[in-house]
Amino acid sequence: MTTKSPPRSAQTRPVRRPAGFRQTLRRARRSWQLYVLLAPALLSVLVFKYWPMYGAQIAFRNYNPADGFSGSPWVGLEHFERFISSFQFERLLANTLTVNALGLLIAFPVPIILALIVNQLQSDRFKKFTQTVLYSPSFISVVVVVGMIHLLFSPQSGIVNNAIVALGGDPIFFMGSPDWFRPLYSGSDIWQNAGFSMIVYLAALTAIDPSLHEAARVDGADRWQRIRHIDIPGILPVVTILFILAIGNLFNLGFEKVLLMQTDLNLPTSEVIQTYVYKAGLQQAQFSYSAAIGLFNSLINLVLLLTFNRIARRAGQSSLW
């Protein structure tokens, strides 16, 4: 009696790896020195960025240092519900969103305008001098910047209040006024960081083909027309990418600067999610509660990033992926 061989589909076949995988493996073997140089950076990202995600589970537990991460009792979304139902939720959300929205609407276009202006300067020496003057404040420490703000806007000896008194007005306690916290924060942030962000747009402007400007001059286009029809479209992909990243950080503030500028009098507008997490987590030892607030903040940023990235991709603009 003859036995029939199993059908071809049922026979054991060797697993064939795709050609792309083999090429990648061959390339990795050929350039193994580069991967060795890359290993420390990858290791640092894994240790300091991905491994801490294991501790995010305390947002769903009543964390007790004696029981550890996995031994603490599971409470689910209790801490999230507590934060959303608290009386401070709306105020914290509004303050964080308002300060960041002002920065996005006012501070985001400033580096673009500065880059377009500096790019039109004819003298190379004056252009380099202007760039140095504009981005040098970014090397100043945040603590020093806040100290400068306190000195300049002091109600007794500040230059600003001295000028107001000389003009016949009354001195203003800027650092103690809730209405002045947002203008001071946004204005100082523009002064400190706009010049450094300008470098990115200047690099994008240098990548534009000079023959386009030469052809535009031959056709009779003036400087503003060349900026409108050549420079701005040329840097639009970079603007789109940076705008998407800025949207993804819409609920993230410079924690150190807000905390340093914060006083008991301006708390109604200066208390944001980051400072509240610091006070609840470190000062009041509510580790699980503060972790839940921080995770909630990160999830909002992630949703905004994904949403605007998808909008940009559907609009035919540059996107992150």
Describe it for me?
The structure is a single chain. By secondary structure, the protein is an all-alpha fold. It has 16 helices and no strands. The model has no long low-confidence stretch (mean pLDDT about 85).
List the helices and strands and how they pair.
Elements (H helix, E strand, L loop, with lengths): L18 H12 L1 H19 L17 H4 L6 H8 L3 H19 L1 H11 L4 H12 L6 H11 L6 H8 L11 H29 L3 H9 L4 H26 L6 H7 L5 H4 L2 H11 L3 H28 L7
Helix pairs in contact: 4-16, 5-10, 6-10, 7-10, 8-13, 10-12, 12-16, 15-16
Percentage of helical residues?
55-70%
Major beta sheet summary: none
Order of helices and strands: HHHHHHHHHHHHHHHH
Strand content: under 5%
Short description:
By secondary structure, this protein is an all-alpha fold. Helices cover 68% and strands 0% of the residues. The protein has helices at 19-30, 32-50, 68-71, 78-85, 89-107, 109-119, 124-135, 142-152, 159-166, 178-206, 210-218, 223-248, 255-261, 267-270, 273-283, 287-314.
